């Protein structure tokens, strides 16, 4: 299923939530309408929270079915609550905006090349996948320019053929290039997706919707 939505008037919905196959961590000031859109499109249970006292949950959390990586700036009470839902590790690295710096599904992870060796091992251990360092279209914040599930992947239109081959080798899915929200190349900022569906920013055009549907295999 695919639905259009926005968060507090903002179509960059990927900034404010992180999702896996069964769970969504969502900014705690989200409207009931946004929560309903998430649950219906992705078939997930939602948990409302802040991370590091902030509503930009999607920028600060990366998660798959096995666990989550959360910014080390998170408050202890936030970590205690999220840990009740799934195993978590804190990203103790200067690139601690986990959602921006980690792209992951249940088969692999691509991370910012600037992430240190210790943090890289912690990411691999908690997410239970092989981790590879790399960039997409020269961008180190790989989570911001791609959206990946266990069925498909969409990435920025600026991705090279080698970038696409890298993504396909890590995540074991086909990759399609697209934009979101009427030309935005940061597709991760405008899409929340799992293998059951996608919620996309409501400024996304019908042509973009078709490419996203194709890339994430939503049929």
Can you tell me about this structure?
- With 219 residues, this protein is α/β, with parallel strands linked by helices.
- The chain has a single domain, classed as L-arginine/glycine Amidinotransferase, Chain A.
- It has helices spanning 32-42, 57-60, 76-83, 98-101, 117-127, 161-171, 187-190, 206-215; strands at residues 2-5, 17-19, 23-27, 45-49, 61-63, 68-71, 88-91, 102-104, 108-111, 130-133, 146-148, 153-156, 175-178, 191-194, 197-201.
- β2 (17-19) and β3 (23-27) form a beta hairpin.
- The chain is globular, with a radius of gyration of 15 Å.
- The mean pLDDT is 97.
User: Outline, from the CA principal axes?
Assistant: globular
Number of strands: 15
CATH topology: the name is L-arginine/glycine Amidinotransferase, Chain A
CATH architecture: 5-stranded Propeller
**Oligomeric composition of the shown chains:** single chain
Q: Average pLDDT value?
A: 97
Main CATH class: Alpha Beta
Given the structure, what is the number of helices?
A: 8
Properties at a glance:
L-arginine/glycine Amidinotransferase, Chain A; three-stranded mixed beta sheet; 219 residues; alpha/beta; 27% strand
